[in-house]
Structure formats: structure tokens, C-alpha cells
Amino acid sequence: MKSLYPFPGLLLVVVLLFPVGNSFAQTSYHHISDKGLYRFMDELAALHIIDLATVVKPYSRQQIADFLEEANEKRDGLSPSRQAQLDYYLKEFMLERWQLKTSRGQLYQKDTSLSVHLFSPEVTYHDSLFSFLFRPVYGYRNFSGGNKDFWVTYGGAEVITSVGDNWGVYASLRDNYQPGQRLAQPSYYTQEPGGNYKGLTGGGEGGEYSEMRGGITYTWDWGSIGLVKDHVQWGDAQNGSNIFSGRTPSFPMVKLHVSPVKWLEFDYHHGWLVSQAVDSLRSFFPSNGRSRTVQRTKYIAANMFTFKPFKRFHLAIGNSIVYGDMDVQPVYLIPFAFYKSSVHSTHWGSSFQNNAMYLNISSRQIKHLHLYATYFIDEFSVRRVGDPNRHNFTSFKGGASVTGWPVDELFMGLEYTRSNPIAFLHDEPTTSFRSNRYNLGHYLEDNAEEYYGTLRWYPISTLQVGVSYVHARKGNYYEYIRGQRDPRIDELPVLDDIVWENKSLSFEAVYNPLPQLRLYASYTLSNIHGYDADGMTGQEYLDKFTAPYLHGSNNILEVGFGMGF
Fold first, then answer.
1. pTM of the prediction?
2. pLDDT tens for residues 257-274?
């Protein structure tokens, strides 16, 4: 009989955490691909307009709306262009503010409950019990100047609803069509979101994939819980988080967020990952007819405690476990547990688990200045500390940014990332730090470092122009081999031979003429190469880690538009 373990555990969480009283808001998550909005929230926090913990993303739409309302009350402290950005986002989140949007593109309005718009297209409705937003989603990108000119598109629709004071439901469906090139693959070192590609209908070099996100949530005045399928991003960063990057295809999870006091926030999720490892005992391979493959099970539990001991100073600590080849374990449905300790009893004598711990420090105590650091610990031993020949399996990211100083409309940022060999890696597909074979952590994975700098300027209205530079290097490509000797796995050289390198200078402009509509263009001078090492040629490394259109030295122009996220 199939185990019902998840349900008693989830019921226990609900019974313990759901309050008896009423609430005042609902939770629908705003996707992390809206980089402009998330950057704006970071900048509002740096300007001391709001006090926001930025380590765990995505934020709920209601949370964003509340912070925008707070910023609107302090708008005199913002420059003219940031006031224009604020007005732009206030229009996007009008439904969460119990208002209907009005614009020149409005086709129909009935009292204060129903509104239909053409620019940007959407239908909204709200009354005392029910609210509803529907809109199409579409985007187009054209690439030229690389090894091949091509274009990609995405299209679909999204719905955001709430029922009563507590329940929220949201859904987003889009098809991604990439006929010329696949922008992401599990082995590519890129910030492009990953997808579970299938071949193009009718054949061709590229691919296409569908992404369905959404969930149902219950919210009360100091927390929320939900069953969602979405992306998560943990860790302060300017160019890719190194706890959870959010690059994998979305996966289903039970998600919990609580803030019972002002000085503490807590986040947890238990997710069902995709191992893409075939369970040969449960699969069928008939000599005649189609085979049926069954994947081996794989799960993740992760938590993060964010403490706020001082105003605008946040200390976040957490841990995670990836486990598989078994039923859901009740101990990992305990949100606040330290999972490494539970392993000693739950998985005694087996290797069906993979633990990690992490620390994130963020300080915005000095107005305009944001300092942050993230430390990801895959495996740690005190005996390795101070030994020049051994290292722990860790990843470090540190950065600083300055907002609105010395010029009001300016943003400047610097960041450094370094990951030791074997960080993020594991030796079994059902316990690896991956889903759909995409790494959950930093996009460069292990034995790598990156220098990143950016400068953004907001000259007028919602127009943003910027320049950024990245220098990323990948050392020897290692496999996780348990029990390896000569050298031991913790003695593998760090950045000894460089097998892949990326030096790219990018110029970018983004303009938002209407809510949910953005126009953008970028020009990138990229220099991406592979180098011979360990019996592989530079071209083999380049093919493995980089999309073909980026091979070598290129000047790439990208133009496009997007409607929805």
C-alpha cells in the first residue's frame, strides 16, 4: 500500500500554525523574473524608505503592495525618476490595494468592480469576497551579431485571484519557443532560466518547453502556508544567488512563511524534485511497443531563519536536505528542524541524503549603502581549517552597492563569488543538489570564481540605462567520487587549471511605457573561451558550458519586449 506519510505531517503543521482569528490579506507570489521590480525594492531599502529582508524571494504580491504604499507615503524622499518608477509599480499592484486601474486603454468599467483594459491587456474584478485578474503573457527577443542570428519567444496567460480574507490562488502558464538556439541546458554557465526541453515540432536546432507555475495559499496576519509550484531564490546577490539560484524548472512544494514578531522571519519549503533517474525495477521495456520509464523519488526540505537584531541589519541562517529513493519522511516536514542531526537516525548506514547549511548577512544601516555576504556550506570539517592542502566544500559571495549617492539617479554595485571544488556536487542522482539536472545553487557550480560590477542610471521617467562587466572563471572540472584517494576529494586543487573563462561587457536600456510592458535593448562584447586540460580540449569545454551563439569573441545585440512575467 502506498505510504500516506506526507498528509499527517502536513496536517500537523496546519493544526499547529493556523490561527483561529480572521486575516486581512492573501498570498500570491510575484515571480523572480521581474528583475526591475526586485531591484527597485532593494533600492528603496537602501534609501531607508522601507526596511525589507531581501534574502528570500519571491515576495508575495500583497507584501510588495504594502511596501509600495509605505514608499508612497515617503515619496518626497525619492528622486523624480524613482517617483515615476513608484507610480508605475503602484499601478501594477492596484488590485492588492483594493483599487481598479484606470487608463486611456480602458475598454470597459462597471462601477468599481469590473475593468477591462487593452493597454496593457487585462481583466480585473473585485468585490467584498472575490478578486480576479487575468492577462495574457507574451515576449520576444532577437539576437544578432553572435555566431548565429536567431529569435526566441514565450507566450501564455496568468491568473491571480483571492477568496475571502485568507485564500489566494494564482496560476501562470507559458510556452517557450527557441527555434534557433537553446538558451539554457543543465551544463551551461548562464543566467538564463532552465527548462525541460523537447525537440522542435517539425525538427530544427533549438527546442521548446512549457512552464506551469501557480498555487493555492492560506494567509493570516503573521504568516502564510501554501501548496505551490514555483521558483525560489535564496541569498542576497546582484548576479546570481549561491544558495538557491531559481534557475531550475519550477517544482511543487509545501511552502511556509511566518513572522510572529518584528525581529524574526521564518521560511520553509518541502519540495518534490525531479531526479530524471530511471527506476529500472518499476520501469517496463517490452521488446514490442513503447517502453514506460518511472523516475526514482527525490525531495528537498529547506528552512531559513532571518533575525533582525538591529534596524536594517539582517542575519539569516538555515539548512537543507536532499533525499530520495524512499517515501516522504515525516521528520523533514518539521519546518524548523536541523536536518543534519536527523540524518543520523533516519538514514543510518545509508547515503540517501545530502545536507547543506548557509549563512547570509545583510546591512543597510548606512543610508545608500548595502553590504552583504553569503556563505554556503556543502560539507565542512574543522580539521580542514588551516590545512593548506585541504579545503571545505563551500561557496562564498560578498558584495556592496550604493544607491542614490553621490548622484540621486545612480546605482553602483560590486560583487565577488568563489566556490571551492565539490561544492554543490554529490555522487548520486537522487541526492544531488539538482532538479531536472539543473544545479539548484550558483550558476557556475563548483571550483569557480566571478568578479561582477554594474552601474545603472535613471535619467527620466521609467527609463533605465546601465553597464555591467563580468569576469568568470571555471577551474578543473571534477566529479564527486566517494572515497577517492591520491588526491583525496578535499585535496583537489582550487582553480589550478582554468578550463573555461567569460569576460563580458554589457550595455543595457530598459523602458516601461505601461504596467507589465517593458522594452529593452542590450549590446554585449563577450569573450568566452575554453582551454585544454585533463584530457579534454578547449572546444569540448566550450561546447559543454556555453550556448553555441556565445562561443569565442562576439558583439551581440539583443532587442525585445515583454508583457507579463
1. 0.91
2. 999 999 999 999 999 999
